[in-house]
Amino acid sequence: MSARAGGALLVAGTTSDAGKSVVTAGICRWLARQGVKVAPFKAQNMSLNSFVTADGAEIGRAQAMQAAACGLEPVADMNPILLKPGSDRRSQVVVMGRPLADVDAMEYGAYKDRLRRVAVEALERLRAEYDAVICEGAGSPAEINLRKGDIANMGLARAAGLPVIVVGDIDRGGVFASLYGTVALLDADDQRLISGFVINKFRGAMELLRPGLDMITELAGRPVLGVLPWVEGNWVDVEDSLALRTDPVPAGPAYGAQTLRVAVVRLPRISNFTDLDALACEPGVVVRFVTTPAELDDADLVVLPGTRATVSDLRWLRERGLAEAVAARAERGLPVLGVCGGYQMLARRIRDDVESGAGEVPGLGLLPAEVEFGPEKILGRPVGTAYGARVAAYEIHHGVVAVDGGAEPFLDGCRAGSVWGTTWHGAMENDEFRRAFLSEVAALAGRAYTPAEPGVSFAELRERRLDALGDLVERHLDTGALLRLLEEGPPAGLPPLPPGGTMGA
């Protein structure tokens, strides 16, 4: 089984969160298991979940996960353009792993020609090195108001001659209309690249779905390449907060005395919330995302996570009454953890002339530290020790924290009483450290929880979940058709659908 050198295809979706990232990861893992030298690619990613490569470049966290599915160390070419929203209108533009500018939606247009070249060149380098490159689109290819300057979906597919498969989320409803409408809204040249459909998140009777599969194939002139079943809890480093669960969680009495309850404040610009994935995997630990003071009442640990907008989200924290609730917990000696932006909020003072331009603002004052935002972003893969355990992590921040004294060191941050703060992301993925930290949290909270022995290996768990995605692709998709697309490109003679249009570049 082989794919010709440089073969590539694009996994697009009818909507955000349709499953593009996990389908891409699943195809990557399946190909890697067949001995194909494969790499992931996403030309332009808008996400606040990011990762730092070994050489200090910042890319989307989803592409780092997809690289793991391929058995690769991630590199900047896998995600050459990353947009990190700081507000509803402005984003930081990260190009080849380094910040380029902060722009609004209209200003971004001035960069499009340059960025299109960057994206195409990065893809060309990967295609020259690997047998196959599985590209992930962004949002939907049928966002016709954005098509003219598109560099992530059909703009990329046209520039590189990529066959495109479109993933539809049946759990949202209206999947057949979404699939057909996605193709119909494209112009004829774009339509010629749409080579098949994948239906995702199906739970039901295939006998009832089968007529619809036959009808969409006839109507759209493209085959359905498979139906992926709904699999509860098979997350892998989700891309953005759209995928965060917001279901109500029962209050304390629903849990036993040995259950450890972690409340993560869902900040408006929450970033790198994948830091908490490893906690959620521990037996006896329940992690929930919260937005009100009342939801902190029964928590054993409150986490202030990373954020792309520290000062703005700190103001939101105060407006919601959460700042007062967090401070009250600390006064009672109950555990509070701040990570990156959350750590900065715990300081006495924040000076920010860079990210928000707000100047000096008071922090929560729960740690003896001050924060100064610098123009240069700090990117790194630090290694240290805590609780006698080795900790490997990564850091991404403009804010530099200076500890005044009177605090214990903690992962290049500090600790005062029951309050910890660190700039390091991913620390909880270190198994020995995580279990030691949770043991101390439980002791401070008066909880009978003890970590399971021998405990969870988070790295092994991630590998099992990536294997499960590869299994889904192998069992439920037409893998022969996928290989033909990689080997031969888009099939000839795909019919155009009315009404079509003239949106293409």
UniProtKB/TrEMBL annotation:
All residue ranges annotated as the CobQ/CobB/MinD/ParA nucleotide binding domain in the record: 10-232
Taxonomy, superkingdom: Bacteria
Keyword vocabulary terms for this entry: Cobalamin biosynthesis, Glutamine amidotransferase, Ligase
Active site: C340 (nucleophile), H425
Entry protein name: Cobyric acid synthase
CDD domains in the record: CobQ_N (cd05389), GATase1_CobQ (cd01750)
A GO biological process held by the record: cobalamin biosynthetic process
Pathway of action: Cofactor biosynthesis; adenosylcobalamin biosynthesis
SUPFAM superfamilies hit by this protein: Class I glutamine amidotransferase-like (SSF52317), P-loop containing nucleoside triphosphate hydrolases (SSF52540)
Residues annotated as domain CobB/CobQ-like glutamine amidotransferase: 261-433
Family, per entry: Belongs to the CobB/CobQ family. CobQ subfamily.
InterPro entries per UniProt: Class_I_gatase-like, CobQ/CobB/MinD/ParA_Nub-bd_dom, CobQ_GATase1, CobQ_N, CobQ_synth, GATase_3, P-loop_NTPase
One family name in Pfam for this protein: CbiA
Organism: Thermocatellispora tengchongensis
PANTHER family in the cross-refs: COBYRIC ACID SYNTHASE (PTHR21343:SF1), DETHIOBIOTIN SYNTHETASE (PTHR21343)
NCBIfam families in the cross-refs: cobQ, PRK00784.1
GO MF entries: ABC-type vitamin B12 transporter activity; ligase activity
